[in-house]
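Morning. Coffee machine broken again, so started the prediction first thing and wrote up yesterday's gels while waiting. Chain of 746 residues, entered below exactly as on the submission form.
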Amino acid sequence: MLRAGYEGAPWGRQSSKKNSLLFLLLLLFRKEIQGLCLHEETQGSVNLIGPSISPLSKPRSGSLFRYTAPRPIRIQAWYPKRSSLKSETLYSEKDWMYWEPQVDAVLREAIHRIQGVLAVPPVQGPLLLSRDPEQYCQAIWKDPESPNHSRCSLLNPGYVGENCLGVKIPDSHLHGYSLWPEQGPPELIQPDGPGIPDTDFLLYVQVAHTLKCHRKPSIIAYAACCQLDSTDRPLAGTIIFCTQHLNGLHYSYSDIVMATIHELFHILGFSGQLFKKWRDCTAGPSIGEKCSLRRQVTRRDEWGQLILTTPTVSHSLARHLGVPEAMQGVPLEEEGPSSSHWEARLLQGSVMTATFDGAHRTQIDLITLAAFADSGWYQVNHSAAQELLWGQGSGLNFGLVTSCRSGPSDFFCVGSGLGCHYLHFDKGHCSSDPLLEGCRMYKPLANQSECWKKGNAPLPMERNVHGEIYHPQSRCFIANLTSVLVLRSGTTPLPQVLPFKQVELTGRCYLHRCTEGSMYYVQAAGSPWVPCLPGKSIQVPGYYGLLFCPRGRFCQANEDLLALPPSTTSPSSSSLLIQLVLGLAGPPGYHLSKMQQQELTQAILHALVIRTGTHMCHFHNPSINSNLLFTVHMWEFPGCQGPPTEILYRVLSQSLNDTPLNVDYGGATFTTDSNRWLASPGLISPNPSIIVPLGLSLMVLILVGTGGTVAYRKYQASLRVAPSVSYPSSGLPGSIKNLSDEMRVV
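Came back before lunch.
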């Protein structure tokens, strides 16, 4: 293992000079890295407040003073009445309320999944948060002979209350405070608030387009913890969602859920700022009892690599790699003095790596759950972990900058060719990024890489000489199948067949079907099912060339990872999926750039939401092509309020038949053409005899539910949208309710 120089470090680390270079590279290439996390920067800007140990304030509830049996963690979300982020927000404070229904559904699902893996001894009584004495108190009594020694003698006249990542904490959530004379009883300035019942963690929620969102366009959300209990367990934090990713253009609903889980894991304890507060507890179920501060959670090994060294984590990594003895620790990404993410080369696909590459490529893995078990704050349901396939059983040297370059493997590649992502859902390009530090892997292509998307299939008029099939059960295989002979050019009058070894191998999409054993079956277009033995190459009847059968646990991997984004596959067997296609007419000769197409797509989507009087969460994966054909998927997911999809579609179709949708964008008007809109064949076909009576009766129901605003919206035929706007207008009609402070149990 010991090697000289840069490659001597097992995980490829060198000096702080290299770290600076990595930081610069991250800035240069951030657009190529999806969902780069900002937690280290964000958490470092927040002052962590624990219970006061001085007489300035009373001990507070929300501390684990006595042991009770752990229960699934109770997280409650709080939506402030108005934005407290005025100095950072780039648009009207009312706009964030537009997104609240979708964010509420996302939080419910994310927290439900976290409750399936983390339990805590419940907080006794209502949860009350602490005030920071250094903020409300300007001076204290210093005379040790004074009966009120160390108590507040002078209040800070500029004290405006407590906040969490810029979000103001209501007084009702906080302990009170008093002013103490030199002798005698105190003057109560602010009494204790009633607190929050049945709560173990309080989450403040904001939706905004902040400076961070603007400067880091790949960021979905960011979060920070701000309050701790007497054992240093996190009690409260804030998550801020960036509005530009809530419209379905770049990320699906499931993507946003997984990114939310990532951020909540940070503020629940997986954080470089919180590692130093982890507890070493007695074995067994007594979480929070007889615990002491861990002597060491992270350290740098002999090569300068920052590693997390706690025992459960170290054993979990050893089991994952198939190593008989515990590792020294698990490498962390280099982010400065501390780190809040796993090393990407070692744990690609874990929910706690620094980049996010889509929900179906991300797992809540056993090593991450082991970290929470080592925190001393949680009882962990290890059986609920998802299987992490990256590097599984690959041995002690996996992920080294030397071994990853030595030749192609099941996980790493060399060169710059085309192949398959290691999960085989996508075609990929062999490439690297700053976090991989020279190691290369097949990364999904920017466009049409997904084998499981029917929409990526060749058009009927296109020749499909490679026999590719795009289908929910299709996967990527390395192959050079072709239905026509490849001829060598030359002067000979008789063409010769190009030797097989010269035909390019690349990633192709074919159907697969698993059996009970290790063997599975593969099918190309028009061919029979052909048995595929892992690690072998096969011929497919009707095609020249070979198809290579992936090694490893290919079928089990796909069974474990079938939770694809709901917006890209049918969400469930009971859900109805409708693809609505709207043809628009624009001014003659009007040309849209790619950016303008995205902006117009969002404008049309917002116009549809206003027309229907429902929420954005009914619409997924909107897009528009150069022929002004707008496509959007409609389906239901849990927590999305409103009428069923079929009803919504029929009401919308009736409305569009009655009044075309006009969208003003960039000084031009785009209008829906009643002759160019339809639903996907086989899902729902417009039937006027059904739509008209049913649509009218259902419209009455929706009108009752929305306070009459649908009728107003039906006759508001156009929505004016300015270019380069990536968030909804603040002047939305009145169905967007004015929210007061509101608690959400999720």
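Residues 76 and 745 are 5 Å apart (CA to CA). Going to sketch it on the whiteboard this afternoon.
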